[in-house]
Specification:
By secondary structure, the protein is an alpha/beta fold. Helix content is 56%, strand content 14%. The protein contains 13 helices and 9 strands. Strands 1, 2, 3, 4, 5, 6, 7, 8 and 9 form a 9-stranded mixed sheet that branches. The longest helix is centred in the middle third of the chain and has 29 residues. The structure holds NADP nicotinamide-adenine-dinucleotide phosphate.
């Protein structure tokens, strides 16, 4: 019976996920670099751990939701890292958006410590995390997924087992490649409409009601028009994902000018001081161009 779950990383996504686990009745331990976010979960009933190792020590499942490869590496395997503290047979669940290379290495490290491992990056954003409606893309062994499933079900509306470790990273990076390209081209289109002095709401209604109308275009486009930059997904994290996607493509011989160009929009926005804002804020530097 899976009772004890540790959540490492309580940012926009991890805090919503930890709250869903608490709401489902799990015994939850939390750790976050900035302690105030962990204490907010402590007020909701979680045990606030002093280190990743302290969070992981008696957990059946340890879920990480961290910024990038280097942070994931440090939190699982660095000083006071979670992996060496875990019980044999417990399951490490890496839900951050990461490279296939790193999740593969992490899976090997977990196996060497007698810990089961799945990668489980997610689609959905802040609101889906807060509502327990994420979609988990899973790579790894079926028995490890079976052990983690009750926890994933508390946080998500769907679980898709894509294959061995690395499969989910590949699909997740492709997912965000397409999202990032759409957001970048959307920002350029909105700036174009504004610079032409068009009725931007009317012009955008053509995109919102036409063939380009993906959930991404509609959601991020609305936020760009409303200048609503409260973060759902932060600018530097999309730059990271597009960089990882470009690398994944390059690894199979595809030099993606598209991924690189889209990434540059997010890098530029970050350099212009938009790094703490939602990805919709990339439109601002184009408005000022
Ligand atoms: P976030 O709010 O920026 O949270 C990032 C987390 O990483 C925080 O817990 C942060 O700690 C931690 N962190 C960053 N640098 C660190 C360091 N040097 N040492 C230790 N901890 C560090 O981002 P998020 O939106 O929750 O995203 C988390 C992961 O989910 C990312 O991999 C992202 O790509 C992915 N993701 C995000 C979304 C989305 O829509 N937001 C959707 C799907 C997947 P602090 O609180 O101390 O900064």
């Amino acid at each position: 019976m899976t009772n004890k779950i540790a959540v490492l990383g309580l940012g926009i996504m991890g805090s919503g996920m930890a709250r869903q686990l608490l709401a489902a009745g799990f015994d939850v331990a939390v750790w976050n670099r900035s302690r105030e976010k962990a204490e907010a979960l402590g007020d909701a009933g979680a045990r606030v751990a002093a280190t990743p190792a302290d969070a992981a020590i008696d957990a059946d499942i340890v879920v990480a939701m961290l910024a990038d490869d280097s942070v994931s590496r440090a939190i699982w395997t660095g000083e006071d890292g979670a992996l060496p503290a875990m019980k044999p047979g417990a399951v490490a669940v890496e839900s951050s958006t990461l490279t296939g290379d790193w999740v593969f290495e992490l899976a090997r490290e977990a196996a060497a410590q007698g810990v089961r491992f799945i990668e489980a990056p997610v689609t959905g954003s802040r609101d889906q995390a807060a509502q327990g409606q994420l979609r988990f893309l899973v790579g790894g062994e079926a028995d490890a997924l079976a052990a983690a499933r009750p926890a994933l079900e508390a946080m998500g509306g769907a679980i898709v087992h894509l294959g061995p470790v690395g499969s989910a990273a590949t699909v997740k990076l492709a997912n965000n490649f397409l999202c990032g390209v759409q957001a970048a081209s959307l920002a350029e289109a909105i700036a174009l409409f504004e610079k032409h002095g068009l009725d931007v709401e009317q012009a955008m209604s053509i995109l919102f009601d036409g063939a380009p109308a993906s959930p991404m275009v509609k959601g991020v486009g609305r936020r760009m028009l409303d200048r609503d930059y409260a973060p759902h997904f932060l600018v530097p994290l999309m730059a990271k994902d597009l960089g990882y996607a470009a690398q994944a493509l390059a690894d199979v011989g595809i030099q993606s000018a598209i991924a690189q160009a889209a990434r540059q929009r997010f890098v530029d926005a970050d350099a212009a001081g938009e790094g703490h804002r939602d990805i919709a804020a990339i439109v601002e530097s184009l408005r000022k161009a």
